[in-house]
């Protein structure tokens, strides 16, 4: 059987769903192919008995007025999902015997907490705030980054303002350089705090996180921006985007894993794994990690581009623990998000469900804890060693959680662990790589991979592309790729922003 849509989007994570819905709404015939039986990818959910677990992402940015999810959902004519802003945004326990750092939503409250926790650091935070302000207004003008054509440049240059040219002087700097510049490089506690927080968003510690990127992620939790906890589960975001796609006449085909892409005179031919089914389309949007490209495209990738992909550092993998406990066992007023500096298997990012948020029965709570791990070694282990390594990691991770939450190993109502192997199966990401490429000074924004590829009619979006990982960011990467694709067809796509 053969059909011919205008565009095929590959991968129904948040990036692919957004791209497919945007293009369908502009009148294109769109098919969205998803390998899994459900959409959402790293922002999906799964059920275990009475529990609903968020697979990867547990908190959402971009729901504030002008935020990326807000703008996109408004463009689709959909309401914002029901959600509560996180306050504290996160509680960071540096395991040093001192009170944990509470990152508050209110900027003044957070400034006073910072001064108490990291005395004398205000110059560092002020510099971050100025950089963030310049970044944020630049981002809200929807620049195309990195530019690969005159059209792209025409969308980048008008977004720049004098403040961006000034902060551009710090393009090659890291967050650690900002500490040194402001005379705050000598506070090891502040440095440790930054290392933990930055790794969550950039996969890199302070010395390897680009200053311009770090300045913004460090400000994401405070009003008027913020991070939110979704009512129901993370899946509601994908469900809304599926709704937008269907309303615009686009088609989502689940259980359709694309196994090869072939360039032809008419465009692209997509082969679907284990099916007598292929599709031809003029344009293809790949909303999957860029590490998948060599397998899908083989020799069609120009040598320079293939080498560029080969030269990328491997992103991290993740170990993710999914557990449940009686709520009465948790500390009083247990925060929804906690970071714990823990040696083995590494620092934990913990998300605890709220009572009545749809994830656990009344009086119980789900507890999800993730920790970064090098991904590839997990694929080198044979069965008995793999099982042992997984059991050891799970026990060590549970020890961290039990010490943090004051519970015992017998009190878990549910406990299971996903390794990078499980993530590869669930999300189709090579080696279960999580997040994007890592936001260090040589690979972020202007130095990253572009959504416009050297192959005509082939576009990229998702967390390998600017502005990086997180559901709010991948929505923006999808918008950027769709604007480029539509411009090639003589169409203009713009969505409302506070600055337009
Ligand atoms: C443990 C963890 C915690 C995280 N926490 C947060 C958080 O709290 N907040 C936040 O905003 N972000 C978080 N993130 C990051 C965020 O989830 C991702 O950056 C984002 O969801 C990626 O979206 P995507 O659409 O680019 O890719 P993905 O979500 O990976 O989606 C890609 C989709 O493509 C499909 N696919 C892959 N290959 C093929 C193929 N060949 N053919 C067809 N389909 C294919 C996959 O099945 C998948 O559905 C977290 C990620 C992880 C792993």
Sequence-ordered SSE layout with sheet pairings:
Layout: E1 2-3, E2 7-10, H1 14-25, E3 30-33, E4 45-48, E5 51-54, E6 60-61, H2 68-75, E7 83-85, E8 90-93, E9 101-103, H3 107-117, H4 122-139, H5 150-156, H6 162-167, H7 175-181, H8 188-202, H9 211-217, E10 227-230, H10 235-247, E11 251-253, E12 258-264, E13 267-272, E14 278-281, E15 283-286, H11 293-297, H12 303-310, E16 317-326, E17 337-340, E18 348-352, E19 364-373, H13 383-405, E20 414-418, H14 420-427, E21 458-460, H15 471-488
Parallel strand pairs: 1-14, 2-3, 2-15, 3-11, 8-17, 15-21
Antiparallel strand pairs: 4-5, 6-10, 7-10, 8-9, 12-13, 13-14, 16-19, 16-20, 17-18, 18-19
Helix pairs in contact: 1-10, 1-15, 4-9, 7-9
Bound molecules: flavin-adenine dinucleotide (FAD).
Flavin-adenine dinucleotide binds near residues 33, 428 and 462.
Features:
FAD/NAD(P)-binding domain, 7-stranded mixed beta sheet, alpha/beta, 500 residues, 33% helix, 3 domains
Describe the fold and architecture.
With 500 residues, the protein is an alpha/beta fold. Helix content is 33%, strand content 19%. The strands form 5 sheets. It has a 7-stranded mixed β-sheet, sandwiched between helices. Strands 11-3-2-15-21 form a 5-stranded parallel β-sheet, covered by helices on one side. The mean pLDDT is 95. The site of flavin-adenine dinucleotide has 38 residues, from helix 1, strand 16 and helix 15.
């Amino acid at each position: 059987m053969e059909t011919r849509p205008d565009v095929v989007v590959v991968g129904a994570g948040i990036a692919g769903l957004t791209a497919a819905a945007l293009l369908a709404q502009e009148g294109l015939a769109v098919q969205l192919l998803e390998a899994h039986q459900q959409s959402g990818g790293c922002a999906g959910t799964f059920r275990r008995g009475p529990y609903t677990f968020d697979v990867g992402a547990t908190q959402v940015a971009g729901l504030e007025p002008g935020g990326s999810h807000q703008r996109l959902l408004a463009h689709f004519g959909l309401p914002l999902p029901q959600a509560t802003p996180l306050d504290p945004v996160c509680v960071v326990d540096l395991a040093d015997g001192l009170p944990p750092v509470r990152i508050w939503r209110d900027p003044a409250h957070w400034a006073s907490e910072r001064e108490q926790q990291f005395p004398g650091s205000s110059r560092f935070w002020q510099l971050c705030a100025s950089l963030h302000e310049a970044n944020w207004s630049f981002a809200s003008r929807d620049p195309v980054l990195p530019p690969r054509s005159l059209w792209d440049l025409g969308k980048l240059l008008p977004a720049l303002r004098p403040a961006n040219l000034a902060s551009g002087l710090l393009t090659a700097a890291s967050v650690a350089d900002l500490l040194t510049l402001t005379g705050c490089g000598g506070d090891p506690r502040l440095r440790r705090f930054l290392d933990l927080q930055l790794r969550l968003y950039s996969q890199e510690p302070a010395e390897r996180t680009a200053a311009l990127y770090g300045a913004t992620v460090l400000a994401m939790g405070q009003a008027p921006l913020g991070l939110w906890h979704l009512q129901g589960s993370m899946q509601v975001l994908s469900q809304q985007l599926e709704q937008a796609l269907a309303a615009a006449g686009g088609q989502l085909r689940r259980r359709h894993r694309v196994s090869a892409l072939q360039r032809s005179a008419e465009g692209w031919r997509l082969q679907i794994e284990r099916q007598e089914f292929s599709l031809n389309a003029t344009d293809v949007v790949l909303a999957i990690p860029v590490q998948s490209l060599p397998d899908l495209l083989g020799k069609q990738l120009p040598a320079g581009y293939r080498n560029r992909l080969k030269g990328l550092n491997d992103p991290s993998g993740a170990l993710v623990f999914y557990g449940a406990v009686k709520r009465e066992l948790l500390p009083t007023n247990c925060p929804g998000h906690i970071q714990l500096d823990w040696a083995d298997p590494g620092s934990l990012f913990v998300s605890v469900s709220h009572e009545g948020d749809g994830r656990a029965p009344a009086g119980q709570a789900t507890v999800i804890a993730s920790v970064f791990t090098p991904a590839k070694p997990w694929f080198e282990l044979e069965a008995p060693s793999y099982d042992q390594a997984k059991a050891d990691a799970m026990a060590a991770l549970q020890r961290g959680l039990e010490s943090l939450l004051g519970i015992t190993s017998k009190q878990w109502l549910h406990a299971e662990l996903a390794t990078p192997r499980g993530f590869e199966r669930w999300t189709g990401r090579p080696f279960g790589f999580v997040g994007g490429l890592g936001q260090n000074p040589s690979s972020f924004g202007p130095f990253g991979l572009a959504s416009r590829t050297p192959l005509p009619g082939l576009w990229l979006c998702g967390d390998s592309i600017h502005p990086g990982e997180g559901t709010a960011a991948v929505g923006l990467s999808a918008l950027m790729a769709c604007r480029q694709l539509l411009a090639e067809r003589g169409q203009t796509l713009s969505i409302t922003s506070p600055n337009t």
